[in-house]
Amino acid sequence: MNIREKLRFIEQIDQPKKKSFQLPNDNYTIDKVIDGEIVSLESGETFVRTLEYDTNTIHGSVSLNQIENVIPDFLKLAGKDTNLLQIDLRNSLFFDTETTGLAGGSGTYILLAGFGFFKENQFILKQFFLRDIPEEFSMLKKIHELINQFDSFVSFNGKSYDLPLLKDRFTLQRIRFNSTNYPHLDLLHASRRVWKNRLPDCSLGTIERSIMDVFRDGDVPSYLIPELYFEYLRTKDARPLKKVFYHNKIDILSLVSLTILLHNIHKNPFENLPNRSDLLTLTKHYANMNQWKLNIPIYENLLDSEINPSVKKELEIQLAFCYKRTGNFDKATQLWHQLVQQGKFRIEPFEELAKYYEHKTKNLKMASQIVEKALENLNVLEELGSNIYINQDKQNMIHRLNRIKTSMAR
């Protein structure tokens, strides 16, 4: 649910609609509207819908059978989590819940929980529906039975919302559940690490339309789902809930396609990320993970086609830094020397060369020459008053030069 939908939901809470009393409608109960089954347990009954898809099914631009090609190393990069090295998507649950509210807590119920998993040559999707509040224990017992068959999760914002809420409901119904050590790929955070600087938001719906070529037909906005459910509880007319089941079904299928897509992006960024802004966002993610080696081919490829001098210089500075962090000082110093000879002064290559000659090669004479050259540029810029950070850069360089000269005098 994006911010706009959350605001609409809050508005509908603040201005509840008055409903006239209406007798329950036995002609349109959930089992007569949705193709599913009423499952009997010792504790009561619950409604379960099961859908089966051949793994050759294409959802958006992705075929579900590509799950066979997913390598955990790239999921680790996507999820920024070493636990994902242990994940096996053939034994993972893709899950999403529809709830009666946004805040969570004891007053929020899961009205529909969808779980998808692979079994042989099929993708099975099970949807557990809360026909009435007293049936919550039975519904959660069936969900608990299913979860215990798997050892990892894939969700969209499930780490922060869906899974904690599910655990709370288990606790309230005294059903023991421990998911602490389960690898969990949260696709919301993985998506933000790629598209946050280009898309207006990283809601699943926006990603579907903008990236995945998934266009929903017969959907319902998330913020309307609680209202539809409360109306159903009052009337037992389940016909409007068809859209809710559809909404949840598409969510689950999109989790699979998005997982595959993100895997492919981290496996081969240039083939799967044609947008330069997305590639630069990805480099920041890799930098945060200290995966400097992965950034080198991205910067090198971007430089090959960059014509803007300022942007090109920034890319070269970042590339040189990656060379340094991976221990390739030959390429780093070569690029730094090129940068200090170019126009449009930047302090970074001067600083890096000064540090390299002072500390790495102990060539103090060269280090002092680099610093003095930097100070000449800084003095010119200071006179022009073109940069508010000039004074700080100048003081740092003067301090470095004094230190170098002191070392040379010993």
Structure description:
By secondary structure, the protein is an alpha+beta fold. It has 2 domains: 3-268, Ribonuclease H-like superfamily/Ribonuclease H (Nucleotidyltransferase, domain 5); 272-409, Alpha Horseshoe (Serine Threonine Protein Phosphatase 5, Tetratricopeptide repeat), CATH 1.25.40. The chain is built from 17 helices and 9 strands. The strands form 2 sheets. It has a 7-stranded mixed β-sheet, sandwiched between helices. A two-stranded antiparallel ribbon has the order 3-4. Helix 12 (292-305) runs antiparallel to helix 13, helix 13 (309-325) runs antiparallel to helix 14 (329-341) and helix 15 (347-360) packs antiparallel against helix 16. The protein starts with a helix and ends with a helix.
What are the key terms here?
two-stranded antiparallel sheet; Serine Threonine Protein Phosphatase 5, Tetratricopeptide repeat; 410 residues; Nucleotidyltransferase, domain 5; 9 strands; alpha+beta
Provide a compact summary of the structure:
This protein is an alpha+beta fold and 410 residues long. 54% of the residues lie in helices and 12% in strands.
Topology of this protein?
Layout lengths: L2 H12 L15 H4 L3 E5 L2 E11 L3 E2 L2 E2 L8 H8 L13 E7 L10 E10 L2 E8 L6 H12 L5 E3 L2 H15 L11 E3 H9 L8 H9 L12 H11 L6 H26 L1 H4 L3 H13 L3 H14 L3 H17 L3 H13 L5 H14 L3 H21 L5 H20 L1
Parallel strand pairs: 5-8, 8-9
Antiparallel strand pairs: 1-2, 2-7, 3-4, 5-6, 6-7
Helix pairs in contact: 3-9, 11-12, 12-13, 13-14, 14-15, 15-16, 16-17
